[in-house]
Amino acid sequence: MTDARRAYADDADVLARLLWDFDTEFETEVDDVDVLADRFRRLLALDEVVAVLAEDDGAAVGFALVVLRPAIWFDGPVAHLDELYVVPALRDRGIGTQVLDLCRRLAAEAGSPEMHINVDEVDADTRRFYERHGFVNVEEGTDYRMLCYVGPTA
């Protein structure tokens, strides 16, 4: 039986290993696990950072990381889902949905009325997953897609 729960700094090593697995699966450059674990420990000490860990019989099988940031559009923070990962062998079993549902509930409890997610256009499976859960890239009343741009800070 898989259970999703809020993760804390004590879970940093497990979260780091999952993130490393995620990035290496998709051939994304990634720091060493110990560096990621230190970052998770530091980030999870912040009130505006929320992590969720999915476990099956004590084994970590997925995670998500959400950052809550102040927003001008409404009184609560906007939630940004930075990462959501489920180990490949267990995909399509509802674990991602369980993790996402808990992330949404925790964000709502923190006062966030909205969650943002960036997804690569070519990642059709991930786009279908989020669309199935009510996420859109065309706002109601418009006929054009929202895009995310990435650039240097200096």
From TrEMBL:
GO terms assigned for molecular function: acyltransferase activity, transferring groups other than amino-acyl groups
CDD domains linked: NAT_SF
A GO-annotated cellular component: ribosome
UniProt superkingdom: Bacteria
Cited PROSITE patterns: GNAT (PS51186)
Alphabetic keyword roster: Acyltransferase, Ribonucleoprotein, Ribosomal protein, Transferase
The protein's name: Ribosomal protein S18 acetylase RimI-like enzyme
Domain N-acetyltransferase residue range list: 2-154
Acyltransferase in keyword set: yes
